Amino acid sequence: MKNLLKTFILGLIVMLVLNITSPAFANQAAYLPLKPLDDLSSVEKQTITTHLEEFKLDTTKNSEKLSHANKQIAMKSLKNIDKNLIYADIVNGEKNIILGTDNKDIFVAITDEIIDVVERVGEFDFLINGELNHFEVTISDDPVGEQKLSGYEYSVMAAPWIYKSEKTINVNAQRNFATYTAAVLGGILGTYLGPALGFAAYGVIATSLGVGAAYTYIAASDYPTNVGQSVVKTYRDGNYPTSRYRFISRHYAVYKGARYYLDTTTTYHSPCTGCGV
């Protein structure tokens, strides 16, 4: 269980990818995050780079699920990694990678030796390797007053973080969370959380990958369900255009009518490249 919790951080990032009524990964230049590999160690960067360079589409665990057309999309995306790499991370030894494509409604998700081509075809409908999947996602503002960080939170950070907002995200997937990879689920959820938090692009992908991983691994392990809930609090270390964002997210599985706490993840976003974490 403890090892599974480590993968949780991946699922919440891609959530900030696109506008809820806009094509997937639209306006990518609007709110650029740090470069996709900047937060990784040199060893992790090399691991991701090598994995992509050596990735063989025909030897993946699910290659038979991809149509000829989707294989062509995936191969084209893999051939131009410098242009298409949106996000990559390694948690608990698992590689999670998101690649863009020439079509703003389509992205490629890689989780170790599994590759999926995901296309948004409706407000709540996505084709995953050609199979239609429906996701009901609602996001609400919580009427919470000014909140302060705990003494512990202040002790581990140099900046004075200012509370900005709190959102509750309810997710009802068509299938059990265990049937989705973290990269796929995180990417899909990213299409909803981005505009809810005020980002038109993929600036906070790490946050949505955290949600996806939590549901895919932790919930699937202990609470086999297709219903989840996340509460995301947003903080900033100032009110300037370059001020950083800090997202504290608590994740729950909804199982047999009850809500079960999974874990808490913390992610950061810098509105401009080179401005810090």
List the helices and strands and how they pair.
Layout (H helix, E strand, L loop, with lengths): L1 H5 L4 E3 L28 H13 L13 H12 L1 H4 E7 L2 E7 L5 E6 L2 E7 L4 E4 L2 E11 L9 H5 L6 E12 L8 H16 L7 H18 L4 E10 L8 E11 L2 E12 L8
Helix pairs in contact: 6-7
What would you say about this model in short?
This protein has one domain. Helices cover 26% and strands 32% of the residues. The chain has helices at 2-6, 42-54, 68-79, 81-84, 151-155, 182-197, 205-222; strands spanning 11-13, 85-91, 94-100, 106-111, 114-120, 125-128, 131-141, 162-173, 227-236, 245-255, 258-269.
Description:
- With 277 residues, the protein is an alpha+beta fold.
- It has one domain.
- The protein has seven helices and eleven strands.
- It has a ten-stranded antiparallel sheet, sandwiched between helices.
- The longest helix is centred in the C-terminal third of the chain and has 18 residues.
- The N terminus is likely disordered.
